[in-house]
Amino acid sequence: RRQRYDAAVEIPNGPTPAGGALKTVLSGGRYAVLQFNGTVDELVRAWAALLRDWLPSSGLQLDDRPLFEHYPRTGRFDPETGAFDCEICIPVAPL
pTM (2 decimals)? Predict the structure, then answer.
């Protein structure tokens, strides 16, 4: 099974960064957002629960925009436990 992972940072409007980096804009619209705090293993389970359990019962469906994790500047990281904060963001549309 193949997966793709893109890492991104917010940059001001202007020229495309050098070094082969790509510049894109995340489209606005409706997103379901889960505030997450935990470890990487727990993050994998949170994604699965959100897509497998919550979404089918929500009356919504995925739309074609990218799913992403947002790591706010105010997010915490605990080096002892590996726990961190992020927001799981999935684009949704009515069924």
Answer: 0.85
